Amino acid sequence: MARAAVLHEGTDVLTIEEITSSPLRPREVRVRTKACGLCHSDYHVIDGTLVRPRPHVLGHEAAGVVEEVGSQVTAFAPGDHVVTCLVMGCGDCKQCAQGQPTLCAGAGATKRAEAEPPRQRTASGQPITPFANVGGLTEEIVIDERGLVVIGDDVPMHLAAILGCAVVTGLGAVFNVAQVQPGDTVAVIGCGGVGLNVVQGARIAGASQIIAVDLSAAKLEASYAVGATDLVDGSQVDAVAEVLRLSGGGVDHAFEVIGRPATAQQALAMCANGRTAYVVGVMSDDAEFTVRAEYTKRGKSLRGVQMGSTRPRVDIPRYVEMWRRGQLDLDGMVSRRLPLDEVNDGFRAMAAGEVNRAVVMFDRTEEAP
Ligand code: APR
Ligand code: ZN
Ligand code: ZN
Fold it and tell me: What is the pTM for the complete model shown?
């Protein structure tokens, strides 16, 4: 039995309850969860933007200690410190062979087949669906080994947790996709857990101007602390006009990191002629937005970004090393630690824009900020 935050049918409140796990399949690993970040993608399931089967265990940005490994697992052993990442390339398809696991065509390979028993059930026996094939908001995660990356024992668990989504998504958008060059100019719309990592990625890449756009003064302040050079409060001014003014006609790279059609349009309006707007935020699958034809004439591009095009086992060890050297700020990203019992308030705080990242801690001694 393990405690978990479960989202049942017909409610937007998670309940804390005991769940059971089934024996490991050959390539699965059982992880004792130590920390799990709350990401806006999880919240999208609560607010209905993403529709997922219930009962559901949210959370996909977790860190913990390996407890048991399946019969075919050789890369992990009990005691290893690991982080989860929802980018689980099957390893066999053409996209995986090309080093693009975010585009993997064999996603089913890392899930249990329909005919198999579910990884976890509620105490009354209902099968639980784990969010993004991870399901991190439980004391015990059962996951395919391809969804794990080993990290050093020196990384505190609350910082390790955010590597698996906020950090790979934000830094990956800058390094792997936009490939921001020294001297480039950047705008970031939405400076939450992911957006702050776009801001600091742009700083590390040597961008000369990093314009942070948000509606929250606290988020703008946090952006400044990790490298933003200019702050635009979209609740006070016309964000597009202000970014065009500050950048002298548009930035080299404009990142949308919220997941809204209107801000994706803003990103395209903010980038300079011939340059690119990147949609990092996740919208519902049927959301649509229009593009001004004029922008195509001016050579602008719109690029979708999925999880920063990360290759987790390449990127996460690099980011840990950047943190060790003091280049990457992880401490500033986690502004609240909370026990599992407070998970609903954690999501409320995230939706209200009160936290950079809130991280659920599973060991009571580690909860204090
Ligand atoms: N203009 C500017 N900023 C906005 C606007 C807006 N119209 N609306 C919301 N924001 C800001 C919020 O104030 C907040 O700081 O966007 C930020 C979103 O941050 P989080 O809620 O922490 O979300 P995060 O976890 O960073 O995820 C952002 O990326 O991975 C995806 O699914 C995820 O779509 C989500 C996006
Ligand atoms: Zn996420
Ligand atoms: Zn694949």
Answer: 0.96
